[in-house]
Design goal:
Elements: H1 2-6, E1 8-15, H2 16-22, E2 28-31, H3 50-53, E3 56-61, E4 66-71, H4 72-88, H5 93-96, E5 105-112, H6 114-124, H7 131-148
Antiparallel strand pairs: 1-5, 2-5, 3-4
């Protein structure tokens, strides 16, 4: 009952850069560990913004003589293949996960006291906040308003 009266707990599914912004707030956080939960137990998800979807890079040879062009999705798949190859080679998950891209989604729980939630909304609903974290804050605000109405 104390938790219900004094905290608002949210379950988030966000990319790693958004999570990095979130955990700057001093609330109670608990995150799914990819050390113990592999991509086979819970499949990997990735967030790629519209601006990044069609970006391509030249790999191989030199910038003048392009060996192959790859897109953002190709880079993510290369990283995933490398991750699974490392696991099959006996590399521990905590080491292999270092190759996974920042676009990877993670599951994280956050428990906010009312004053922490007010501060969160003030900062993360601001027009200067990055779009992704502003979207998270807007969704949270909707849930809080539903709960109080």
């Amino acid at each position: 009952q104390i938790i219900r009266d004094n905290f608002r707990v949210f379950l988030f599914n966000v990319d790693l850069p958004t999570r990095a912004q979130m955990v700057r707030h001093r609330v109670s956080w608990q995150e799914l560990s990819r050390r113990y939960v592999s991509g086979k137990k819970q499949p990997f998800e990735f967030y790629v913004s519209n601006k990044m979807k069609d970006i391509t890079s030249c790999i191989g040879y030199s910038e003048i003589n392009c060996g192959q062009t790859v897109g953002t999705a190709d880079i993510i798949n290369i990283c995933l293949d490398h991750y699974y190859t490392a696991l099959e080679a006996g590399i521990k998950p905590e080491e292999a996960r270092r190759i996974l891209p920042q676009a990877m989604m993670t599951t994280i729980w956050g428990a906010f006291q009312p004053s922490q939630l007010d501060n969160w909304f003030q900062l993360r609903l601001d027009s200067h906040a990055q779009r992704e974290i502003r979207n998270v804050a807007e969704a949270m605000k909707e849930l809080v308003c539903l709960k109080t109405s």
